[in-house]
Amino acid sequence: MKYSDKLNGYWEEGYHYYLEFRDEKLTVRNYRREISLETTVTYDADSLDEDKRTVISLSDNILSRTCTGEMMTEIKELAYENGELKFLHYYTIMGETLYTLKKTDKGPFDHIIIRDDEFIDKLQGRWENWSPSGKTDTPMIISGNSVEWFSGGGKFHVVSYSYDKNSVYLAPENLIDDNFSGFNKIQVFPDMLTTHLMIFDMSTPLSVFARADMLDKIEIPPAAREPARSTMIYEPHLFRPGLMSTEAMMDIQNQSSALFCQYCGHELPEKNVSFCPECGMKI
After folding, report:
1. 100: helix, coil or strand?
2. Residue ranges of the domains in the chain?
3. What does the buried/exposed string (b/e) look like for 59-84 if buried means 16 or more CB atoms within 10 Å of the residue's CB?
4. Overall pTM > 0.90
5. Cα–Cα nearest to 104, from 220, 11, 194
6. Which of the residues 60, 63, 71, 144 could staple to 39 if both were Cys, CB 3.0 to 4.6 A apart?
7. Quick one: DSSP state of residue 253?
């Protein structure tokens, strides 16, 4: 089988997906740089080298499944066209989306700058959780390169991004969302820390932490004063085709013995679950 150097290498869409081709092997990563799919591919290398539109066939095209094994997201078509990759994505909730990826010489983590030496010492110790009703008893403890909050936590790096060097975050040690206490990054400010979670563009920050002597002095971000919500739940005037309004979801649940997540529409395995097994949102 012949392969093309025009295809081999890294391809980036800019936010949602990041692809790597190595001859017959394709690795697809999501926006958190987690691997969504690894598969083999076939295509007409001569056609691609001549810059003709070339469809790339995948041995496996499923990006995610429900807990019952049904397809949730897939690559409907992947094609080389005019020096770009056209990535036709299908999601059972939102329908089809066409992404355009351009070739890049950057690896999946080249945009991340590790800044442990600059910040670790300043972050050590106890950070109190701010709440509208006053101080809570759920502090964040930072010890060395480890963070602990509630019953979770993990190892981290202090990072910023090449496109925004002044914004500083704590990110999981492996630089992707991996058992990091219910959120995937913590933003660092001079006098507070804020937690962030990227699920369907959820409103953030989720929580705010500060030193005990600063709780009454910090300026709380407006979003943190409101209950966290996913912006995938649309009011009637914001409803878009392919997305369910809250009313539509309630109609479905009233007509069925099954229960569905109000955020992503996934069928829940039982009534008394606290979190959706598909999107992770609190029920």
Report:
1. strand
2. 9-104, 112-225, 232-283
3. eebbbeeeeeeeebbbbebbebeeee
4. no
5. 11
6. 60
7. H
